[in-house]
Write a structure and sequence with these properties.
123 residues; mainly beta; globular
């Protein structure tokens, strides 16, 4: 499956952005989709995950209550709605896909990655 992340940009603290991860190539509903991010000088970290069906989601503590992950399998797209953005949310955001039965927050569990989209939050 090929993934294309988009929707990043520059926003002031407290603002909102919606990221999209569009997939092509294989049956989208066969994949858990996860967002990771990598801030300047930091390691890549887990942000949010949505299960194949969309019934289950998981969030990093740092974004819980502010970010919402959703998917539209008919459009082969996963969304990450980011509200109340903070400067520490500044990062390149990547979406990744995994077809395993169970889901994981570990990067090495993911076979397919999008190219990343830059999110910059100014104070």
């Amino acid at each position: 499956v090929q993934l294309q992340a988009s929707g990043g940009g520059l926003v002031q603290a407290g603002g909102s952005l919606r990221l999209s991860c569009a997939a092509s190539g294989r049956t989208f509903g066969n994949y858990h989709i996860t967002w990771f991010r990598q801030g300047p000088g930091k390691e890549r970290e887990f942000v949010a995950l949505i299960s194949k069906s969309g019934r289950n989601t998981l969030y990093a503590d740092s974004v819980k209550g502010r970010f919402t992950i959703s998917r539209d399998n008919a459009k082969n797209t996963v969304y990450l709605q980011m509200n109340s953005l903070k400067p520490e949310d500044t990062a390149v955001y990547y979406c990744a896909a995994d077809s395993s039965i169970g889901w994981s927050t570990r990067m090495n569990a993911y076979d397919y990655w999008g190219q990343g989209t830059q999110v910059t939050v100014s104070s």
